[in-house]
Amino acid sequence: MDIVEAVRSRKSIRRYKPDPVPKEILSEILAIATRSPSAMNTQPWEITVVAGEVLDKIRKGNVEKLASGAAPNPDVPYKPYEGIYRERQVELAIQIFGLMGIAREDKEKRAEWGQRGFRFFDAPALIILSADKSVDESRASFDIGAISQTICLAALNYGLGTCIEDQATMFSEVVRKFTGIPESKCMVIGIAIGYPDWDFPANKLESKREPVENVATWCGFD
Ligand SMILES: Cc1cc2nc3c(=O)[nH]c(=O)nc-3n(C[C@H](O)[C@H](O)[C@H](O)COP(=O)(O)O)c2cc1C
User: Fold this and answer.
1) Integer Cα distance of 169 and 28 in angstroms
2) 87-140 confidence digits (pLDDT tens)
3) Residue 123 contacts by C-beta under 8 Å, 6 or more apart in sequence?
4) Furthest-apart CA pair in the chain: how many Å?
5) CA of 164 to the centre of ligand 1 (A)
6) 171 Cα–ligand 1 center, Å
7) 137-156 vs 23-33: helix axis angle to the nearest 10?
8) Bridge partners of residue 190, in order along the sequence
9) Ligand 1: which atom is nearest the Cα of residue 205?
10) Does the pTM of the predicted model rise above 0.85?
11) What is the full DSSP assignment across 91-109?
């Protein structure tokens, strides 16, 4: 696949077919993606690939946590978005809920949607990217961001879809319990991966982008 076509066609997939992804394919994707650049070639990514019963146990554990009203406990803390960033976040929710036919005031359906994310949108596999806590967190996050996009692009070559997900590692204690990822590692992000269910309304989403003139400043050009 042409690289520009791949970048343009990648999108977050929020429902998958149940078909498992062969380990060999996941391994090939990771072999490609580990060619990603990293600061001083430190390659801080530590990759945990989860499927089958273990993944189902994490899904169940996450859903139980949600039902209990427990607060998420991610390794990388985050602060709420403000201003234009909050506006873009809300716009995304409006687009998704519109496609899914979920009314703004329908708290039950909104909660149900939230739960899907914690179930990794029922993907047959999840890739968790962690870094040793000795590595500066913002540096590690940058490099893990680079490999994340490369994983998502490489996945397209195999007919696979992905969704990069903060939600995936938000209940860090659940993920640790079933994967054995130790406390000495910072779980930065998860990527749901599988064969897209193209009939699912939210998978038809075309997320918006600011035009380049709004985000780029040109210096030294005529
Ligand atoms: C760091 C990061 C965290 C994300 N976390 C979530 C998440 O928890 N749940 C979700 O549904 N999508 C998540 N996404 C997907 C974004 O919502 C998505 O990339 C964005 O809306 C642009 O849409 P696109 O990926 O379809 O181009 C995340 C993406 C990134 C890069």
Assistant:
1) 24
2) 999 999 999 999 999 998 999 999 999 999 999 999 999 999 999 999 999 999
3) 13, 16, 163, 192, 193, 194
4) 60
5) 5
6) 17
7) 130
8) 128, 165
9) 26
10) yes
11) HHHHHHHHHHT--TT-HHH
